[in-house]
Structures are given as structure tokens and as C-alpha cells.
Amino acid sequence: MAPAAGTSGTTTGKNEVTPTLSVSGINWWTTEDELRDIISVVGVEKNIKEIAFRENKINGKSLGAVNIEFIDIESSEKAKAKLTQL
């Protein structure tokens, strides 16, 4: 898996910063457990609020992208730093 971490601290239409990390370029077979294992290296896996894989609406297959929502922006930034090293 060689993910390309997008920006954490994503802004909404109201210019509010959110602690969501967008990761693209991952293999379609990547699991939630694998993502948690990678993020556990920086010690913020318990701060994950939700992991949402982006899927094709017709066939349900992964699009190779995922949104990882954390409870705070600091955790999101730590995970981003680790994922961009891969």
C-alpha cells in the first residue's frame, strides 16, 4: 500500500477546519485494520472517530481512497506525517 495522504484539517464550505484526513492511491484490498496498524505507530489509533472507504456506488468496489476522521486535528496531523512517509 503506498497511500498518498491528502490534507488533514480539511476545511468545510464555512471555512471550519475538521480533523479529517483524506488518503488516496491505496490498494483496493486495504482493510480498516491495516490502516489502524499503520496509524498505531504514531500512537493515535485510539483517536480515530471513523474510517470511511470511498466505493463505487454501482458495484461497491473500493475506489482506492478513504477518509479517516479523528477526534482532534493534532491526531490527524500525526497520522498524515506517517502516511506520507510510505
UniProtKB/TrEMBL annotation:
Residues 22-83 form the RRM domain. One of its GO terms (cellular component) is nucleus. Pfam families: RRM_1. One of its GO terms (biological process) is mRNA processing. InterPro entries: CPSF6/7 (IPR034772), Nucleotide-bd_a/b_plait_sf (IPR012677), RBD_domain_sf (IPR035979), RRM_dom (IPR000504). One of its GO terms (molecular function) is RNA binding. PANTHER family: CLEAVAGE AND POLYADENYLATION SPECIFIC FACTOR. Belongs to the RRM CPSF6/7 family. This is RRM domain-containing protein. It comes from Zancudomyces culisetae.
